[in-house]
Write a structure and sequence with these properties.
The structure holds two protein chains of two kinds.
Chain A: E1 5-7, E2 10-13, E3 19-24, E4 31-37, E5 44-50, E6 53-56, E7 65-68, E8 75-79, E9 88-95, E10 103-104, E11 108-112
Parallel strand pairs in A: 2-11
Antiparallel strand pairs in A: 1-3, 3-8, 4-5, 4-9, 5-6, 7-8, 9-10, 9-11
Chain B: E1 3-5, E2 9-13, E3 18-25, E4 29-37, E5 44-49, E6 53-57, E7 60-65, E8 70-75, E9 84-92, E10 97-100, E11 104-109
Parallel strand pairs in B: 2-11
Antiparallel strand pairs in B: 1-3, 3-8, 4-5, 4-9, 6-7, 7-8, 9-10, 9-11
Classes of the chains: A mainly beta, B mainly beta.
Amino acid sequence: GAGVSQTPSNKVTEKGKYVELRCDPISGHTALYWYRQSLGQGPEFLIYFQGTGAADDSGLPNDRFFAVRPEGSVSTLKIQRTERGDSAVYLCASSSPGLDTQYFGPGTRLTVL
Amino acid sequence: GQSLEQPSEVTAVEGAIVQINCTYQTSGFYGLSWYQQHDGGAPTFLSYNALDGLEETGRFSSFLSRSDSYGYLLLQELQMKDSASYFCAVIKGSARQLTFGSGTQLTVLP
């Protein structure tokens, strides 16, 4: 079956601009996670959704970052007033109810110039 | 706080066996996962240990000792395609979020 998909695969923007990154999880997966990975590091947790609600947003670095999942499936990560330090690969993962295995999408490489 | 430690680099030859160790310090621990990531690719799930002991999946095995806060990934019959970064990650918290180590770069030589 289809895995986790993310769009766009690459996004180049200018400092101060607004960006939206999209994640389409595996069908039937109620848990959805966003992570951020900088070069040479492991992914870092940003936010977790169970269904439509953000159950844990403790990893969001500041209030410029926001994510939604209005219908409990597709999620959008929104970054306002982007800064060069936001440049990273943004990964989305989903997992099946009651299971701890997370499956990752290919990521969106964000570059802020 | 929480931290994971794993070697930054490991080199081995085709056909060999390699073990990548991971030690962790964390609260609210549920289990230890291992992921493989090729350059430019997504992390790919390899294994998950919630209980002490050895889990075997084909050429890959993973071990966990909760009392020692220690685990390892064992790769047998190494192939060139196994060259990649390998991450251990603890599963913790009510969100069951993953906290990753910095990764081990495995290079398999012919």
